[in-house]
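Sanity check

After download, print the first record. It should look like this:
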Amino acid sequence: MSKEHTHLSWSTHGREKLQDCRIFSVYTVEREASDGSRGVFIEIDAPDWVTVIPEVTDEQGVDCFLMVNQYRHGTDSITREFPAGTVEPDEPKQEAALRELLEETGYRADELIELGEVSPNPAFMNNRVTTFLARKLTKVQGQQLDEHELIDVSPQIVSEVVQQMGSGMYDNGIMMISLLHYLRWKKAVSL
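Expected structure tokens:
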């Protein structure tokens, strides 16, 4: 953080767990601003996530992403997304990306490129999401899904994904962020 913004920082004076919710925990955090004002805020302590963008080419030679379709309980809808999931404690994020790709699609990647990392919602979440590009894919097994996961896998034409991202089945903000990382990388490598 630059010195010109240090007056915006808050110091932490206490943190208390309110609830453990299987995939995240909820805390109250007492903080004080540089002007002396104090407040109690909610913080979601969630694991880091990885998103994997698998590049493939279809039978006609068209560039595609290997994507997953699944039901999402939060929105009561079926979405189309890149394979993704949480990073286990002490697991390197690259290994988590390869694991999630293999579990959800049955594909192994011989090349994995980290494209970027962001905070998915810094207003109340303390985790990070990292996007990887998976290339040189080989189908090595069937899916190995977690309990309660039902996932269909299908190639989707890159240009159509770019056009539709942020609407319909592509209504997932993390996928939009990951696609932005991919498009920046694609532009940088083509310069």
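If your output differs, re-run the checksum step. Summary of this record's structure: The chain has a mean pLDDT of 93.
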